[in-house]
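Quick log. Single chain, no ligands specified.
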Amino acid sequence: MPSRDEGYFASKDGTRLYWSQVLPDTEPKAWLGVVHGYADHSGRYKLPIDFWVSQGFAVQAFDYRGHGKSDGPRGDFKQWSDYLDDVTAFADKLKAAAGGKKVFLVSHSNGTLINTHYLATKPAGVAGAVLVGSFYALALPVPPLKVFAANLIKGILPGLKLSNELSVEYLSRDVEWQKESANDKLRFSTTTPRWFSGTMAAQEGLQGLGAKITLPVLMVLGGADPIISVPAAKAFFETIASTDKKLEVNEGHRHETLMEVGREQVWESISSWISAHC
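-> predicted structure:
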């Protein structure tokens, strides 16, 4: 029977971050690290995590600052690089736990934006990455007036809570998952001018990073994703320097393809890809 554990660790600046772990009842084939999306948390990945554990993988997940059970104001940071520090600290913890076994990072949405910046640093000890729902640009361009307003407010009230205008129907066609997401007390529906400006800058900062990513990559997208720009994700994929890369687009799937109708096939595809790289 799988064993579970949880606790807290510290990011670079001392921010307390929550982590959890599930181990198979046999020697793990490899270790997976799960990085969630914005306004999201690691607890929402229980079903795919349990599936991957059933396939023989050990899995750790964590909540980066301002999310889930971790410390920090909801959906905010001092600067965007704080997220990169959080993922770096988590990856170091994961690699230490793996004890020499191969380590793979599985990220979603905003977590994939963070992970992409991390992967461009060519981190030692990471064998491959699965980039899901890549948040490299919004599906619809942000009106210039809204960008101007966000930058203006950022200078006055950078942490002001604003609605992120995202409906749970954007996440998945699965009505039960929509209801569960709407009732999840750890999710939130706000953003801040500081987060908006910092994240847009991080997306602009993707230019040239693809050439620095040389490890194996699997990118998984929902073909009907109403939140992220699928064309932007595909365009970035083409710039990734790795000779071992694969793009999968699940037609009809919305943003959370890991929790879509037919999700088991997505979990299996990711498991098979990682197994082939162990």
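The chain has a mean pLDDT of 93.
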